[in-house]
Design goal:
- The complex is a heterodimer.
- Chain A has a domain at 4-96 and 166-228: Rossmann fold.
- Chain A is built from six helices and ten strands.
- Chain A has helices spanning 48-55, 78-88, 104-114, 119-132, 148-161, 178-195, and strands spanning 4-15, 22-33, 37-41, 63-68, 71-72, 89-92, 166-170, 198-203, 214-219, 222-228.
- In chain A, the strands form two sheets. Chain A has a six-stranded mixed beta sheet with strand order 6-7-8-3-9-10, sandwiched between helices.
- In chain A, helix 5 packs parallel to helix 6 (178-195).
- Chain A is globular.
- Chain B has two domains: 55-96 and 310-426, no CATH class; 116-286, no CATH class.
- Chain B is built from twelve helices and twelve strands.
- Chain B has helices spanning 10-16, 55-66, 68-99, 101-104, 130-135, 242-247, 274-284, 293-307, 310-339, 341-350, 354-386, 398-424; strands at residues 110-114, 126-127, 140-154, 160-168, 180-183, 193-197, 212-215, 218-226, 237-241, 260-261, 263-268, 288-292.
- In chain B, helix 2 (55-66) packs across helix 11, helix 3 (68-99) packs antiparallel against helix 9 and helix 11 (354-386) packs antiparallel against helix 12 (398-424).
- The longest helix of chain B has 33 residues, at 354-386.
- The two termini of chain B are 37 Å apart.
- The relative contact order of chain B is 0.17.
- The chains are: A alpha/beta, B alpha+beta.
- Chains A and B meet through helix 1, helix 2, helix 3, helix 4 and helix 5 of A and helix 1, helix 2 and helix 10 of B.
């Protein structure tokens, strides 16, 4: 049984046409393994978020192939891609993107609702997830009543709700102070290692490199370096 | 190696998800550490109404309740639409009922009318002797004369009001008043006596029973009031005996001359074949039209509502209500959707289907529609109640209430299509910006 959950080969992504065309990715290949924390680092505009969106089945590359769970996703309908995202991925966003009208457990329950889990079961499970990520006390609070770190933890709980193989986190610490940011990164790392999930973190903060098992540095749409942490893999 | 975390089977998720196992600390990671509370934590939680169990319903309701000003604007639009529809259709039904009331309450099976007569109020005379020919037809048990014509009523202050004199046979009562609330039909046996509806009493300058007035230059005494007998033309019906009515027929309006009447009301034996009687009457009286009561009532309604354009105006008003409602609901739902497109983008990124996202918008629309309808129909019922003693005929039967409700929910659903179309175009990558 392979540990590879996502593989992408020779990805090329061009936005626009003609003279206005911008090449966001050019010949990028990547592998994501179960239980590892993969950091994608690079400056703003380097193409790292585009790479995250492609491996998360949110956008299609101009060329190249993506395999998720061993199966190619080319040719899948938008509906099928949506189902794939629901089954395979949990997303954590820079701006948390919690629904302001829903409280903590309800925000988590939305992800369960998408999988058809509703009612008391959903509430019980949502509260358990919030407990797992350390914000059970904020289960009934609304996002506006939470700190940034608490919001991001709720967002992590939401990402975990569908029991995904891969958590894709886009700049999860960018809106947090350094202490809160580190706690979120540690939380994600712990989830990856203890629950054998793959965690892909996109960041421009090179200080986070120490937390990952592997890292890929991207500049101008190209991979400029690949690093594996000592004693890992 | 333990089981892979990825698992789409919900039952397995419930019990075997590694997530639900107790987490300990690993590599010094403080799992579960709570960040310092932000300033927002000091806020007092707002009181919120109970939410539906389904998250889409909960989201729909919270989206509505979150922006109360927009919600109120939406409700105002729907309420306006509901009230306009209910009142306009209520007036249409009321006018339709009013226009044909004289025919439907006359108690006749068939009406013998002058050829080409289009409605009961604008009568053309026919020979009285036709009555005897009609009585000779098998199955006919009674034929009564009825006079219906415009006349001039002179109020005590000298002002003239057009009225419609209804002269009927007191013995049979066919074509006579109904809903008598003061006095008695028997009082009309006295000379120069009349009965009017109390909603027109003020218009005709009548304060009390027994008051003497002037019709076509002749004396008349009010001996009774009816309730709710309105006239589409706003010229009140004045009921009197057939004999009395002839006294008020001197004007140019009646067109009556000696030996002529306006209508002959035919009653048939209970088991008689009306179609057969009708054929017999038509053959015997070829210069007339023989109409069933339902047919003549329908002709009268159609004449007043369609020919005069009154019906079209009312229908147009009702349609306008629908259009205004659709526009307001569509606009507010669309604005709310655009405002929340980042949330919809997040849900789409998480794998929500179009149907899931659409159901949120649709539930918003239907929730708005239901609340707006209940408020609007309550107001409309109040308007109907307030109009009960006025000359305006306004009704709100339950069927109309149900129809307006269905139309309201339909228009809200239709209005949500604009927002739903917008949702289809929402790019999930917006969530990353």
């Amino acid at each position: 049984m392979t540990d590879l959950v996502v593989t992408a080969e020779d990805l090329r992504m061009v936005y626009g046409r003609g003279a206005a065309a911008v090449c966001a990715l050019n010949g990028v290949s990547i592998e994501v393994r179960r239980g590892e924390v993969l950091l994608i680092v690079g400056p703003s505009g380097s193409g790292k978020t585009t790479l995250l969106q492609i491996i998360g089945a949110l956008i299609r590359p101009t060329s190249g192939s993506v395999r998720i769970g061993g199966k190619p996703i080319e040719g899948l309908s938008p509906k099928a891609l949506g189902r794939l995202r629901l089954d395979f991925f949990g997303f954590v966003f820079q701006a948390y993107n919690l629904i302001p009208e829903l409280n903590g457990w309800e925000n988590v329950a939305v992800a369960l609702d998408l999988k058809g889990i509703r009612g008391r079961v959903a509430e019980r499970r949502s509260r358990a997830l919030l407990d797992e990520v350390g914000v059970s006390s904020r289960a009934d609070a609304y996002p506006a009543q939470m700190s940034g770190g608490q919001r991001q933890r709720v967002a992590v709980a939401r990402a975990l709700a569908s029991d995904p193989a891969v958590i894709l986190a886009d700049e999860p610490t960018a809106s947090l102070d350094s202490a809160s940011g580190w706690r979120i990164i540690k939380l994600l790392c712990d989830l990856a290692r203890r629950q054998l999930r793959a965690v892909v973190i996109v960041t421009h903060d090179n200080r986070l490199l120490a937390a990952g098992d592997r890292s890929i540095a991207i500049e101008d749409g190209r991979v400029v370096s690949r690093t594996t942490a000592p004693n890992r893999h | 190696m333990s089981a892979a975390p990825h698992n789409t089977n919900q039952a397995e998720m419930a019990d075997t998800s590694p997530l639900l196992r107790t987490l300990g600390s690993a590599d010094g990671v403080e799992v579960g550490a709570v960040d310092e509370p932000g300033p927002g934590r000091q806020l007092t939680p707002r009181r919120r109404l109970p939410a539906p169990r389904a998250m889409t319903g909960r989201l729909a309701w919270r989206n509505l309740a979150h922006d109360r000003v927009r919600f109120i604007v939406t409700l105002v639009g729907i309420v306006f639409s509901v009230v306009l529809m209910a009142v306009q259709w209520g007036m249409l039904l009321g006018f339709a009922e009013t226009a044909a009331a004289l025919v439907t309450h006359a108690g006749a099976d068939l009406w013998i009318v002058a050829r080409g007569t289009s409605n009961v109020d604008q009568s053309v005379n026919i020979p009285e002797r036709y009555r005897f020919k009609a009585l000779s037809i098998a199955g006919v048990t009674a034929v009564d004369k009825l006079i219906v014509h415009f006349a001039v009523w002179r109020r005590p202050d000298g002002r003239a009001e057009p009225v419609i004199i209804v002269g009927f046979d007191l013995d049979s009562g066919a074509g006579g008043p109904w809903n008598v609330v003061a006095g008695s039909v028997d009082d009309l046996h006295l000379p120069d006596t009349i009965m009017i509806d109390r909603v027109y009493a003020a218009k005709l300058g009548v304060d009390t029973l027994g008051q003497t007035v002037e019709i076509e230059g002749r004396r008349a005494r009010v001996v009774g009031f009816t309730n709710g007998i309105r006239a589409f033309t706003q010229s009140p019906y004045v009921f009197t005996s057939y004999k009395n009515s002839l006294k008020y027929s001197g004007s140019q309006f009646s067109g009556l001359v000696e030996g002529r009447t306006h209508y002959l009301l035919v009653r048939a034996a209970p088991a008689a074949d009306l179609a057969e009687i009708r054929e017999g009457l038509q053959a015997a009286l070829p210069a007339t039209d023989i109409r069933s009561a339902a047919e003549f009532a329908d002709m009268t309604t159609r004449y007043w509502l369609l020919t005069t354009g009154a019906g079209a105006a009312l229908v147009l008003g009702a349609v306008l209500g629908i259009v205004v409602g659709v526009i307001i609901v569509a606009q507010t739902l669309y604005a709310a959707t655009v405002e929340r497109q980042s949330e919809f983008a997040v849900l789409r990124a998480m794998g929500a289907s179009n149907a899931y996202l659409n159901s949120i918008v649709l539930k918003q629309a239907l929730t708005s529609g239901t609340i707006g309808y209940l408020m609007g129909i309550s107001i409309a019922a109040g308007v109907v109640q307030a109009a009960a003693d006025s000359t305006v005929s306004l009704v709100l039967p339950w069927q109309l209430g149900v129809a307006v409700g269905l139309i309201t929910l339909s228009l809200c659903s239709a209005a949500s299509l604009v927002a739903i179309h917008r949702i289809k175009t929402i790019d999930p990558t917006i969530a990353f910006r």
